[in-house]
Automatic annotation (TrEMBL):
Cofactor: Mg(2+)
Alphabetical keyword list: Hydrolase, Magnesium, Metal-binding
Keyword Metal-binding: yes
Record-given protein name: ADP-ribosylglycohydrolase
Gene3D superfamilies with a match to the protein in the record: ADP-ribosylation/Crystallin J1
Phylogenetic lineage: Bacteria, Pseudomonadati, Planctomycetota, Phycisphaerae, Phycisphaerales
C-alpha cells in the first residue's frame, strides 16, 4: 500500500500570512483584505471539491459504511466465544487487568504523545530513565502546560502522579460506560453524541467536527461526514475498549456497539478500527493469546478493506520484528506518507507491540510507546488487550500504585472517578448487555 505525499503548502501559507501581517503593519496596502478574501474563497472551493469527490467504485463496494453491508463482507468467524458471561474464568480480575493495562499504557504514552523517537530518547537521558521506558517518566518537557484543561504534563511523571491523569483515550472509555448506563445496551448514535455534547468540553479532529455539526443542526446520520477529512483517523478506535469490556466473550456484540459509537465521527476504516479492536478486546477475556484476539477481531470487519489488509500484513511479519525501531521502520515503509494519527498505521504498531512483549505488559507498552506516532493510543490498546488476558496480578505494581483509586476527569461537572467503582459498574453493565442480547 503506497500513499502520495500531499504538496508541502504549509510554508507557503505561513509566508502569505506573514506578508499579510507585514502589509497591515505598514498601513494596510490597497487590496490586502481583498487578496485574503480571494484566498479564503479558493481554499473553501477546493475543500468542497474534495468533499464531493467520489471514491472509486471498487473500494466503495469493499468498504461500506452501513452495518448490514459490513456484516455481509465479513469472513466466517467466531461471533460468540462462551455460552454465558459466567463462563469466563476470573472475569472480574481480567476486567481490572484490562482497565489497569489501558490506564498504564495510556499514561506512559501521554507524556510523550506524537514525539519523535530521538526526542523521547533525549527525555529518558535527561531524566535518568531506561530506554525504552520501563517505568513512568521522571522528566518531561513543558511540565507546567495543561492537558485537557486539567492536569499539567508534570502530573504524568513518576513522582508527581496522583491518580490516572486525564486523557481522551481514558475519557471515551468512561463515556461508553455512561452511555450504556443511561440508554441501555440498545443505545443509538444520537444518544452517544448527546452525551458528548453534555459532558465533553474539548475535542479534536473528527470528534470536534462531529460536535460542531451536531450543534449546527446537521442530521445525526451526517454529522460524522460533513466537512470531516478525519474520518479514517485514529479517534474512533481509541473508543473501543468499553464496548469490549461490556461484551466480554461476545465479539459480534462488541463490534455492533462499537459501530453505533464510531459513526458519530468516522467512516469506513475509521469505523472498522473501532469495531475490530472492540471485538478483539471482548475476545481477549476468553483467551491466553492477545494476538489471537486480534485475529478474531478481524472477523467482524470487511475482509477486503484496507484496514483488514493492513492488520493481516502486520500479523504476517510480526514474528520478524526485532524491536521498536524495526516496528516503526516497517510501518513507515509500508504506509509511506500516511498521517501519523491514521487508524491503519497505528493499528499495525499495536500488533507489533503485542508481538514484541507477549504477555509481559511492561515490555509491550514500553516498546509500543518507544515506536512513537500516536503512542498514548497504541500503548493504551496494547495494555488493555494484554491486561484482559493476564489480569490485574499480571501487571507489575509500579504501573498501578500511582493511581490509587482515582481516575482524573475533564468531563463537565465530574472531577474524578473511583477505579473500584468504575470496575463494578462495568461488571454490572456487562451482565445487562449479556442478558439483553441473550433474550433478544
Amino acid at each position: 500500500m503506497s500513499y502520495l505525499g500531499a504538496p508541502d503548502m504549509k510554508k507557503q501559507l505561513e509566508e502569505i500570512i506573514h506578508w499579510y501581517e507585514l502589509r497591515q503593519d505598514q498601513g494596510g496596502g490597497l487590496g490586502v483584505d481583498e487578496l485574503m478574501g480571494e484566498l479564503d474563497g479558493v481554499m473553501a472551493h477546493v475543500r468542497d471539491q474534495f468533499q464531493e469527490m467520489e471514491i472509486c467504485s471498487r473500494l466503495s463496494s469493499q468498504e461500506p459504511d452501513d452495518l448490514e453491508a459490513i456484516k455481509l463482507l465479513r469472513p466466517e468467524g467466531d461471533r460468540r466465544l462462551v455460552a454465558r458471561l459466567a463462563d469466563i474464568a476470573d472475569f472480574d480480575d481480567r476486567l481490572m487487568g484490562a482497565m489497569m493495562g489501558r490506564f498504564a499504557g495510556c499514561t506512559l504514552g501521554a507524556a510523550v504523545e506524537l514525539l519523535e523517537i530521538d526526542r523521547m530518547k533525549g527525555l529518558a537521558e535527561i531524566g535518568g530513565d531506561e530506554w525504552p521506558p520501563m517505568d513512568y517518566w521522571q522528566y518531561v518537557t513543558n511540565g507546567d502546560v495543561l492537558r485537557y484543561t486539567k492536569n499539567r504534563f508534570i502530573d504524568y511523571t513518576r513522582d508527581r502522579m496522583c491518580g490516572v491523569p486525564v486523557d481522551d483515550d481514558i475519557a471515551y472509555t468512561l463515556m461508553g460506560l455512561m452511555v450504556v448506563e443511561r440508554f441501555g445496551p440498545c443505545f443509538g448514535t444520537a444518544d452517544v453524541v448527546a452525551m458528548w455534547d453534555e459532558l465533553i468540553p474539548i475535542a479534536y479532529t473528527a470528534e470536534e467536527r462531529a460536535l460542531e455539526n451536531y450543534r449546527a443542526g446537521v442530521d445525526v446520520e451526517k454529522i460524522g461526514e460533513v466537512n470531516n477529512p478525519y474520518v479514517e483517523w485514529i479517534g474512533a478506535w481509541i473508543r473501543s475498549d468499553g464496548w469490549g469490556y461490556m461484551s466480554a466473550g461476545w465479539p459480534e456484540v462488541a463490534a455492533e456497539m462499537a459501530y453505533r459509537d464510531a459513526v458519530v465521527s468516522h467512516r469506513r476504516n475509521g469505523v472498522y478500527g473501532e469495531m475490530m479492536f472492540s471485538a478483539a478486546i471482548a475476545a481477549a477475556f476468553t483467551l491466553d493469546c492477545p494476538l489471537r484476539a486480534i485475529e478474531i477481531g478481524l472477523q467482524e470487519i470487511p475482509a477486503k478493506s484496507r484496514f483488514a489488509d493492513a492488520i493481516r500484513w502486520a500479523l504476517s511479519v510480526a514474528d520478524d520484528v526485532t524491536d521498536y525501531q524495526d516496528a516503526r521502520d516497517r510501518v513507515e515503509a509500508q504506509f509511506k506518507d500516511m498521517n501519523i494519527v491514521h487508524a491503519i498505521n497505528n493499528a499495525c504498531l499495536v500488533v507489533f507491540g503485542i508481538a514484541l512483549g507477549g504477555l509481559d505488559i511492561t515490555k509491550a507498552i514500553s516498546q509500543t510507546v518507544a515506536m512513537g506516532m500516536d503512542n498514548d493510543c497504541t500503548a493504551a490498546t496494547v495494555g488493555s488487550l494484554i491486561g484482559a488476558v493476564v489480569g490485574k496480578d499480571g501487571i507489575p505494581a509500579h504501573w498501578t500504585e500511582p493511581f490509587g483509586d482515582t481516575i482524573q476527569s475533564y468531563f463537565n461537572g465530574i472531577e474524578s472517578f473511583s477505579i473500584k467503582d468504575v470496575h463494578a459498574r462495568f461488571m454490572t453493565q456487562a451482565e445487562k448487555v449479556w442478558a439483553y442480547h441473550q433474550s433478544s
